[in-house]
Amino acid sequence: MLKAQTQMSLSKYSELYNILVPEDNELRQINELIDFEFVYEELKDKYSATMGRGAVDPIMMFKYLLLKALYPASDKGLVKRAFTDISYKYFLGLNPEDPVIDSSSLTKFRRQRLKDTNILDLLIGKTVKIAKEKGLLNSKTIIVDSTHTNARYNQKSPHQILQILSKDLRENVYKIDEAYKNKMPQKPNHKAKGLLDVEMEYTKKLCDVIRQDERLMLYGHVKEGVDYLDEIIDDHMCELALSKDEDAKVGHKNADTHFFGYKTHIAMSDERIITAATVTSGEKHDGKQLETLVNKSREAGMEVQAVIGDAAYSEKDNIDLANEGKNFKLYSKLSRSVSEGNKRKVEGFFYNKDAGMYVCPEGHMAIKMTTSGKKKHKIEGKTMVETYYFDIDKCKICPLKGACYKEGANTKSYSVSIKSNTHSNHMEFQETADFKLKVKDRYKIEAKNSELKNAHAFGLADSHGISGMNLQAATTIFVVNIKRIMKLMK
């Protein structure tokens, strides 16, 4: 049952907040800047109005998630700090002497209350509205890019994940006290049946042994390692037991490196306030998200007259979208090979700008490219064909075999028609002083991606599945936007 928390009930210790949480404290400023009542409106349908015992205040639970995005930590580490940090308690609406939640409540809140909510668009829209009300969002240009996030569970089986994390924890302990090599529980026999159950049991024993030594638990990285393993076993192993992260996919950074996880596609204003975002699996092409980012930015209240992006956004469909459909200028350097060309029976092939190669729908990159056409066509800038060849051994075992690859074929290729007349106007636009000046602003979004990863741990997913990734993106971008708004207000 949902009960609204109208305001913090005062106690004889409340005066401590005026002494220990100064006006320039980051959390105090966030509390004063934002009216969090919108959380009730968004979540009221997730609670019963008459049944069950009173639920923990949803605003407080939401603020816990913001704290986790502001100061990355495990759920247990976050709750423990909330018990002792006076600024945390002030932010959460607690009295100094009040108890905090059990860390398991955060998992339930994420899964039961925030499931199926449009939390990403909601929180970005809220910050854009605040920025506009404060007169801080005046530009009519968005900069677009994507940033990748590695899946929490990678492409490993559940027992492999536990083995790796347990090994890291043991090594950290041995660096402190080598004598512990004789105190650790016996490692499981990996030939035994029920391997996951055996590994989970061993991990629990390992954590119990370390937890009993108060001296070891004073070391932050050891304490966090134990809490992290506890959190995985308690909250996520039920999902891990089924499979790896099924929503995550392999994406390519360039021809030589790849990652397994997700992409968050971002639109950001000149003032460095994120105006839209969408989360996809790692193999999705950046350019395909442009229309969505423009639409979401406009729905959030941003007037979009110009879009700045790298070569991934300069495919033919986007140029047409800018010039004919959405009425904005596209400042994206043209790569001839980005154009889709002739349609194929199997959609989903896209051009990786860093590698200079096409990638198939299953995420495999072409191994070579050839160009065909009459020499005079190349000179005249008329139609040429680029053909991209894929590793036939991978095609033979691909799930799309039969639809994309013909059984028994000796090669698998994908051809692209390059039509200069489609891009001639954009090529001329690229040479203008306006274009050359505008594209220099693209560095701003690269700095924003770096902030997301380095300051707010956005380089690694903190939960399982794309719904969890959406929530992580929502809270992280909300926090980053609010920090930017407060900086601009100064």
Order of helices and strands: HHHHHHHHEHHHEEEHEHEEEEHEHEHHHH
What's the gyration radius in Å?
A: 26 Å
Are there runs of 5+ residues with pLDDT below 50, and where?
A: 338-345, 376-381
Mean pLDDT: 83
Strand runs, count: 11
Determine the number of helices (DSSP H or I, runs of at least 4 residues): 19
* Largest sheet features: 6 strands, mixed
* Amino- and carboxy-terminal Cα gap: 41 Å
Structural class: alpha+beta
Percentage beta strand: 5-15%
Q: What helical percentage do the residues reach?
A: 40-55%
Envelope shape: flat
Walkthrough of the structure:
The chain is α+β, with helices and mostly antiparallel strands and 490 residues long. Among the domains are: 16-117, no CATH class; 158-240; 340-418, no CATH class. Helices cover 44% and strands 13% of the residues. It has helices at residues 16-20, 26-33, 38-43, 58-70, 75-84, 86-92, 104-113, 119-133, 158-176, 195-211, 220-240, 290-299, 316-325, 375-380, 392-396, 420-430, 433-438, 443-456, 465-489, and strands at 141-150, 249-252, 258-269, 274-281, 306-309, 329-332, 350-352, 357-359, 368-372, 384-389, 413-418. It starts with 15 loop residues before the first helix and ends with a helix.
